[in-house]
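Why should sequence recovery work at all? Because a backbone constrains its sequence more than one might expect. Tight turns favour small or flexible residues, buried strands favour hydrophobic ones, and helices have their own preferences. The token representation captures these environments compactly. In the example below, the structure is given first.
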């Protein structure tokens, strides 16, 4: 059964950086698009970025794209989200999800990880 595990979150001061990891495993390591999402308490999950199966295509969901970078590891079973110049409003639970298809648009989540907490505070 497909499983996704996020890691790399924590407490960081404004202006710092974090690299979040999403490790995928299962009977067959999925070669589908992977997306990162953020959930703030009391709200739904908002899309941040998506990367295609090959890693050649990336999609970002907001105009502050420059602070977020999504990438794939060489083994293609891990997807990263680099966040630079962290702001307090970046605080939330970050989830990764595997799409049911190879495309980022439309993105149809087929599996979710448990999430990793990111807290940005001075």
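From this structural description, the recovered sequence reads:
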């Amino acid at each position: 059964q497909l499983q996704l595990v996020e890691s790399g979150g924590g407490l960081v001061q404004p202006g710092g950086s974090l690299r979040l990891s999403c490790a995928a495993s299962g009977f067959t390591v999925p070669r589908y698009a992977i997306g990162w999402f953020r959930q703030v308490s009391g709200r739904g999950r908002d899309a941040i970025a998506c990367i295609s199966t090959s890693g050649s295509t990336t999609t970002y969901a907001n105009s502050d794209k420059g602070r977020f970078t999504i990438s794939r590891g060489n083994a293609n079973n891990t997807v990263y989200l680099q966040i630079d110049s962290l702001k307090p409003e970046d605080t939330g639970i970050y989830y990764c999800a595997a799409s049911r298809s190879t495309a980022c648009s439309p993105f149809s989540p087929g599996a979710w990880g448990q999430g990793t907490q990111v807290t940005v505070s001075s």
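A few observations help interpret the result. The radius of gyration is 13 Å.
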